[in-house]
Design goal:
By secondary structure, the protein is an all-alpha fold. It contains five helices and two strands; from the N terminus they run ααββααα. The protein has one domain (3-140). The protein starts with a helix and ends with a helix.
Length: 141
């Protein structure tokens, strides 16, 4: 491998590692609240959206995890194809960023009641991940 490609790959991996670290923090901060609110929801957001992986998710998965984003062969009528009766069939670290980023009003209210200021902390981390995803995209191109 030539020096340019090796350096380029190293730069991509460095950015992906930072994203991975922040995503781990986000997952940890949200886990308890998502488990309570989303599991009790009669009409989960996931049931209203389709496939959410974008180009940055695809690049991140390839660089960080060394794999392509998950694909589901069978179609689902309405909603995310990874939504199962037990919740999301994907491990949190491989979910699209949109799934981490979106806080419905019920989830945000529950977070605020139990941990005032948590939504603001999350939003700051979301912006940091978004900036890193933009940097990953730039490095990739």
């Amino acid at each position: 491998m030539d020096v340019f490609r090796q350096t380029h790959k190293g730069a991509l991996l460095q950015v992906a590692t930072k994203i991975e670290s922040l995503l781990s923090e986000l997952i940890s901060l949200q886990r308890e609240h998502v488990a309570v609110v989303c599991s009790a929801c009669d009409s989960p957001c996931c049931g209203k959206v389709g496939y959410l992986f974008d180009e940055k998710d695809v690049i991140y998965a390839k660089v960080s995890l060394g794999q392509d984003v998950p694909r589901k062969k069978q179609k689902r009528n309405g909603g995310c194809p990874f939504l199962s009766t037990k919740g999301c069939a994907l491990a949190p670290e491989v979910r699209p960023f949109a799934c981490h980023r979106y806080l419905c009003s019920e989830l945000e209210a529950a977070m605020t009641r139990k941990e005032p200021g948590l939504p603001q902390i999350l939003n700051k981390k979301f912006r940091a991940v978004e900036a890193l995803r933009a940097q990953l995209w730039k490095e990739y191109l």
